[in-house]
Design a protein that fits this description.
With 475 residues, the chain is mainly beta. It has two domains: 285 residues, 3 Solenoid (Pectate Lyase C-like), CATH 2.160.20; 107 residues, no CATH class. It has a 34-stranded parallel beta sheet that branches. The N terminus is likely disordered.
Length: 475
């Protein structure tokens, strides 16, 4: 599982992915000169330029002390932002111009704070640090490879933060775009929408060790050109979410849960969507192209459009992939130990067209199991890739499946139920098992049947509309 970032704000439970270390020193708010208070008193919005006396940090702090909104005009660039600026509760930073820092600077959003951008409103090498409820970040452009992340959501304080909105942001030429560390506190009702993420070394959105959070929507994003070339391990994912330690009982307090990832267009990366130790979630309406192993080659992460590790009770629906690695749905593993297996999920309306793919790549690879569990795979069309199903859930349904794989690459359909001599066989369901196949066609490039099925020993077997014959049932 992901290992946490090491920041001055918090420490976290172990997780599978090893992440980087970052640090910064947060400054206290300095003394405010009475003459500026008198000069700007009563104004709801002021330009920060009016407070500038050679120090932009002091100018922002003084402006926030006397007005509800601090404005950065379009023709202005505020530079040398190299320490923390705490926005008082309920304040707004309105940016039409630019702000630049050295990576150590940040604006800390407390209760009810907003950062709003007009066209051209931009941040470079400055972090937005969210530490309150009812915060909004909207309409800004962010860049810079110096800070670990452009937007940080975390902190040590054990509290609940509600109603965060991040909308219409553009993040490019940076490390991470949005990073959440969630072990110590709780986020409720978060909406991250309408973003454009490009040319990143780290993840576009990383929601890490988020075991307390509830109701998260990540939707309507374009993610492209995510390529970790700086040698960092486990960097370079489009959208990643992780709970804490894997447990095959799937306790609620260890999982990342109650979230939706929807309406994502992704291209040119190694892995687009990643979930570890999650439950009660939906991934839908994903359009992916050119997801392959040539990106983030030293990051040590699997190549897949969607990678799911050790998760329970989820739906993946309406996924359109072209010239891309497909799905990896597999075990929760730590240091070589198999701790959990995916269960209770549905895959529906899946298209994977690798007709013109120049690389050998993963198709749809699924491991599932456990004593009382189900898996439903429906309406799947795959060209020049393989559908693989490993291990044995209690009830397995395949409906309306059409798979073609070139014969020199192996079978189109692989059903590997026989793990009696494999350590992973302990996850197999053994009682009242069901295998149901309807309208399943698996062929090679010549239209010939192309399947590899090692053993069928389910108690109930229902079939119709197959272009192949199952092995005889064996007890």
């Amino acid at each position: 599982m992901r290992k946490p970032f090491k920041t001055p704000h918090t420490s976290f439970s172990p997780s599978r992915r090893k992440l980087l270390q970052a640090s910064s020193v947060l400054a206290a708010v300095p003394f405010i000169s009475p003459r500026y208070v008198l000069a700007a008193a009563g104004k709801s919005e002021v330009s920060v330029q009016k407070f500038y006396r050679g120090d932009w940090i002091a100018a922002f702090k003084q402006a926030f002390s006397v007005a509800d909104t601090v404005f950065v005009p379009a023709d202005l660039v505020c530079d040398n932002i190299n320490t923390a600026i705490f926005m008082p509760e309920g304040k707004t930073l309105h940016v039409a111009g630019g702000l630049k820092g050295n990576g150590k600077g940040r604006f800390v959003l407390q209760e009810g704070c907003q950062v709003l951008g007009e066209r051209g409103g931009r941040f470079n090498n400055i972090t937005l640090d969210v530490r309150g409820s009812y915060c909004t970040i909207k309409g800004i452009d962010m860049s810079g490879f110096v800070p670990v992340t452009q937007i940080y959501i975390g902190g040590k304080e054990k509290r609940t933060m509600r109603n965060l909105v991040i909308d219409q942001i553009t993040v490019h030429d940076a490390n991470y775009a949005i990073l959440r560390q969630g072990f110590h506190n709780r986020m409720e009702n978060v909406k991250i929408t309408n973003g454009h993420f490009s040319r990143l070394q780290g993840d576009a959105i990383e929601w890490n060790v988020a075991i307390n959070d509830h109701n998260l929507l990540i939707s309507d994003h374009v993610i492209e050109n995510i390529d970790c070339t700086n040698g960092k391990i486990n960097w370079g994912i489009g959208i990643g979410l992780a709970g804490s330690t894997y447990d095959n009982e799937y306790p609620e307090d260890q999982a990342v849960k109650n979230f939706v990832v929807a309406n994502i267009t992704g291209s040119n990366c190694r892995q687009l969507i990643h979930v570890e130790n999650g439950k009660h979630f939906i991934i839908r309406n994903i359009k992916a192209s050119n997801i392959n192993h040539t990106f983030s080659q030293k990051a040590g992460i699997d190549n897949a459009t969607i990678a799911i590790y050790g998760c329970d009770n989820f739906v993946i629906d309406n996924i359109d992939m072209k010239e891309s690695a497909g799905f990896l749905i597999g075990y929760g593993v730590i240091k070589g130990k198999y701790l959990s297996i995916p269960q209770n999920f549905k895959l529906n309306d899946i298209v994977l067209d690798n007709t013109d793919m120049q690389y050998k790549s993963r198709g749809i690879q699924i491991s599932s199991g456990n004593a009382t569990s189900f898996v439903a795979i429906t309406n799947v069309a795959i060209k020049r890739s393989t559908l693989e199903v490993h291990n044995k859930p209690q009830h397995l349904f395949l409906r309306n499946i059409d798979v073609m794989q070139h014969s020199d690459a192996g079978p189109a359909l692989k059903l590997n139920f026989d793990l009696r001599k494999d350590v992973r066989g302990r996850f197999m369901a053994k009682e009242d098992t069901l295998l149901s196949l309807a309208n399943v066609r698996a062929v090679n490039e010549k239209g010939q049947s192309s399947v590899d099925i090692d053993r069928v020993d389910q108690r109930h077997v229902n079939t119709s509309g197959l272009n192949f014959v199952l092995p005889l049932r064996r007890d």
